[in-house]
Amino acid sequence: MANRREEERERLRQARQEREKKHAGSERRRLMIGYAAAGVIGLAVIVGIVVVIVSAASKNDSGEAHIVQSTGSTNGVQPEKRAGTEPPPPKVTNLQKAAKEANCDLRRRLPDEGHNHIPPTSPTPEYGTNPPTSGNHVEPPYQQADGAYSEMPQELDIVHSLEHGRMEIQYSPKLAESAQLELIGLYDTMYGATLLFPNENMPYEVAATTWRNLIGCNEYKGSITLDAIRDFGKATWGVEGREPVTGFPFTGPTPAEPTIG
Question: Which of 60, 145, 185, 191 is the most exposed place for a label (fewest CB within 10 A)?
Fold first, then answer.
């Protein structure tokens, strides 16, 4: 009798151990599944954070410099990476009226100060206008390529670009950030054969130049200043340049049919 009881206890003990072993295994599997699920969720959260950061960076750094290397050289000048503000539709389409309302100095058909090519290491000539509108300039292929830049190129380089019929929009680096973004936005609508860059040397807040033409605005007055630049482009873009106007690979405006604004 005693032996049977001992055998029964042993059987029960072994059965209990087997149940405990199975239960422990089930708990381990459940924990592993839980850890895996938590890992997936954590990874998704991290990926989501990265996407948000990248998206924010892209939003804040999504400007299009539109640099066209085939039209010259960047000469090591850094491109403009900020996204511009979309400009309002044009209202004043008469150049003289827009220039007057915007308090801009409009100078047309200025004297040709020279057009010889000189080496890129040459001293900068003393140009008769500020910003320059003509004069001796760097030899090919160092003319400044079409595009938007965050730094001012050398005057030797941008004068040659003018001779190729380019328009150059320039602004004081001290101009308010919001105004700079509006100018970038305007440039984005007219970037074919156009350059945009800050100019710390000129006496104007905003200016635009073509070969032998200048509009210089003493202050930035928002939409009317943008209108004055548009109108200046329509009147002078590609008209006075002495060399072939090339490099219009985009659907933007051309000198033969300017569609700025």
Answer: 60
